[in-house]
Structure formats: C-alpha cells, structure tokens
Amino acid sequence: MNDGLSSFIAALSREEREHLLATLTGTGDGPATEPAVPSGHPAPAPAPAPGRKRFPVLDRVGAGGMGCVYRVHDRLLLRESAMKVLAPELATQPKYVGRFLGEVQIQAQLEHPGIVPVHEVTLDDPGGCYFVMRLVSGTSMGAWIRRMTTAGTFSEESQELLSAFVKVCDTLAYAHSRGVVHGDVTSENIVVGPFGAVYLMDWGLARLVRSGAGSVTISAAAKNAVSDGEMAGTPAFMAPEQASGHPDLIDERTDVFGLGAVLHLILTGQSPNAGRSVEEVVQRSRAGLSPVSRPLALTNPDGLPVPSGLCGVVARALAADPNERHQGVLELKRDVERFLRGGLAWPLRRLAAGTCIVSEGEPGEAAFVVVQGTCVVYKQVRGERRELRRLEPGGVFGEAAIFSPGPRTASVDAVTDVVLGVVTREIIEAGLGLDSALGVFVTALGERFRDLDARSTAGDAARDR
C-alpha cells in the first residue's frame, strides 16, 4: 500500500471506518447525511457560531468531512433553510476556505431542479464560514435501499428506484454540460423527496473539467485550493482514477462510474467495491471491474438473478478503463430507460416443493415466470399423469390466461422450492397498453395460441381413446 493510501486510511477514525463498512454491507444506517472524504480532523462544534442573529439553529441535520449542515430559521424571510458551516478549525486555513468557496460557487451557478439552490454565502463572519441554501425534505437513496421490504429487480419498488436514478442522470448531464464533474456520486448524496423530487447533494468535491462559453466559473482562490494527486471521494463508489490519485484522468466518465456503483447497489444491495476492511474497499476501488467483456452475473439480496440486460449496463458503467464505460451520462440513462420501457414489474410468489401451482381445467387469470427453481408441466390422460416438459428459470406457463378467459389446459407442480413472477392482465395492460394497436395485435396472437392449444389437446385425447 503506497504512502498516500496509508495516510488516507490512518486518517479515518474508528466511527468513520464503522460507518463506511456498514454502508458497504448494507447492515447499518449509513451516514446521517452527505458523506465526504473523512478528514481526520476533530468533529465540528455541535452548533454554528456564524449567522446566529439572522439564522438561529433549530437542529443539526448532518455532517461531512469539512463541516456540518444545520436546519435554521431565517428571521428575515420567515422560512426554514439549511446552513452548511465550515468546521472552525478549517475556517482559518486558506486551502479549505478556498475549497468551501469553490463548492458554493459551483452549486450556486448550477440552476437545475435536481440541485439545491444557494441563497447566500458568508466567508468573513466572526464566527466562521457558511452558506445558506434551500432546506429539502426526503430520504437518501441509500436509506431507501436499506429499508426496502420487497427485494428483487422485478418489484415495483425497484423500478421506482430506477426511475429516481434516471433523474439523477439528468442532473449530472446538466452539470457536465456546464463543465462540472461532481466527483462523489453516492447513494447517500442522492435525496429522494416527495412529489417526484430527486436531488444530487454535496458538491464539495466537484471540479471544473472544461472552461469557456456556458461553463461554470470559480474564483482563483477556489481553483488553487484543489490538491493534485490527492485521493478524494467515497471509496465504496470511487472510480479507479480517483482511488489511484490521478486527477488529470478525472472527467465525466468518472461520474459514470459513480452512477454505475449506485446502480449496482440498487440491484444487489451492496457496493461493487464492498470489502471486509477499509483497506480492502480502497484497493478494490483502485482496481475496478476489468475487462468489461467479462460476463457479470448479479443477484439481489434474496439471491434472485438480476436481468442480464441490466448486468451488462452495470458492467459497462463500472469498467476500469474509462474508454470502455458509457462515454456520457445520457448514454447510461438511455440504457436504463430501455430496460424500464421493456421491463414489467410483477409481484413474486414463493412456493415449496410439491405445491400444485395450477390445475388442469380450473379457470386461469394469471401467467407465471419461473424466477428460481424447477417446475413440471403435465396432463391427465386416461387417468394417468403424462409429463409434458420441465421449466427452469426463465420458463413461462399459463400465458394464454392473460389474453382470453378459459380453463387451464395443463397442470403445473413445483419440483423444487420455487420463486415465481405473477403476471396478470392488468400488469400487461400497464406495460403494453392492450387497448393500443400493438396491444390488439398481441391479444389476437394470444387468442390464436389458446385455440391451437385447445385443438392440440382435443387431438391428443382422441388418439388416446
């Protein structure tokens, strides 16, 4: 381990190590709010001194490596706001004041629904440095993932998470268009609020990768505060070029890697860089996933397989070589949207081995997809059971019931413990719109299939007599 990495690890307090590892494994509640690179400095004071006359503190809502965020009351505008305060021991060091100034200048110039607007900033208050911004309500995406009660990429809640993920892609694409790379895209830095609001928080590690027309501008003091060769970010979501201390290689594709790590967490419940120690996490973040052509088979927290299409998206976004990743955030967004358009959310049902799932002759109202386990399809012919086929994961049965009413033409039993996706006509209507032109065509095919199946069954019965 090199000296820079050793220094980084040594700077972590015991609490910071525990928080990091708990977040990686999904066993803890994670940081209270925006996580940044642990600095090893003493914890900031419990309440900020600056701005107390106009902004009395109501409570603390979170902490990061450079300071704390408080909920305050604006006595002039009669509203609640959020105040981010630079830690007092850092407020006397030009390097950290410059970084703080760069953060607020970048955030203030990025005017987008997914970025919290800045109201004002003060660097010369006797009590220290702070800036005030809109107070947003919601929960971090990390907390949402940890409390999910319905696991699996087929669940409706998982698809809601993916929809929120797409909004983050839009926010980052806008920032990139202004020449800004976020540099710390994590599940804890994404806040999902009510009424469809999704925010990308904590721009403290953002940097300019392009200047010129349309780009954000920052002061010379802020530019000079960026330390080349310093590893900065959250190891669980860090791209190899960040973890290796190569700031000259950081660009928009670095944020693509961070998004890929968030997507990996959404689908599997853990970070791709998860490890048993902070040292292992950092080493894995330095290596990344390579090569991208290697098949990536992911499973959700219940051990169910993630659709191969999404596995491919994750593998590409997490490629160790930036040239093998999506070359822009919108390219990644399109891949996820393609899945959302084609993917359907259905409930999962677990059944024990030996369970009769459907019976020949009974009314059918739903189809089933085998997600895990093995099923057997059979008919009763002259009082004897005739096995027709066995279904492994990916197999489908009962599909005719979706399109037209009628009795089941065969029985299906669970050979092993199985997990089934239950597909109803309502789900298909929501996904395809069966009253559309395409829906009418698909319904006609389903009815023709049922007719052919009925004729085949009648023929089999006649031959057996």
Describe, in plain words, how this protein is organized in 3D.
It is a single chain. The chain is of the alpha+beta class. The chain has helices at residues 3-10, 14-25, 94-109, 141-147, 156-177, 220-224, 240-243, 252-268, 278-287, 308-317, 329-342, 400-403, 425-432, 437-464, and strands at residues 57-63, 67-74, 79-86, 118-125, 128-134, 139-140, 180-181, 190-192, 198-200, 207-208, 348-351, 356-358, 366-372, 375-381, 384-391, 396-397, 411-414, 418-424. It has 2 domains: 3-342, Transferase(Phosphotransferase) domain 1 (Transferase(Phosphotransferase), domain 1); 348-464, Sandwich (Jelly Rolls), CATH 2.60.120.10. The protein contains 14 helices and 18 strands. Strands 1-2-3-5-4 form a 5-stranded antiparallel sheet, with helices on one face. Strands 11-18-13-16 form a 4-stranded antiparallel sheet. A 4-stranded antiparallel sheet has the order 12-17-14-15, with no helix packed on it. Helix 5 runs antiparallel to helix 8 (252-268), helix 8 runs antiparallel to helix 10 (308-317) and helix 10 packs antiparallel against helix 11 (329-342). The radius of gyration is 27 Å and the shape is elongated. Mean pLDDT is 80; it is low at 1-6 and 23-46.
What topology does this entry show?
Layout: H1 3-10, H2 14-25, E1 57-63, E2 67-74, E3 79-86, H3 94-109, E4 118-125, E5 128-134, E6 139-140, H4 141-147, H5 156-177, E7 180-181, E8 190-192, E9 198-200, E10 207-208, H6 220-224, H7 240-243, H8 252-268, H9 278-287, H10 308-317, H11 329-342, E11 348-351, E12 356-358, E13 366-372, E14 375-381, E15 384-391, E16 396-397, H12 400-403, E17 411-414, E18 418-424, H13 425-432, H14 437-464
Antiparallel strand pairs: 1-2, 2-3, 3-5, 4-5, 6-8, 7-10, 8-9, 11-18, 12-17, 13-16, 13-18, 14-15, 14-17
Helix pairs in contact: 5-8, 5-11, 8-10, 10-11
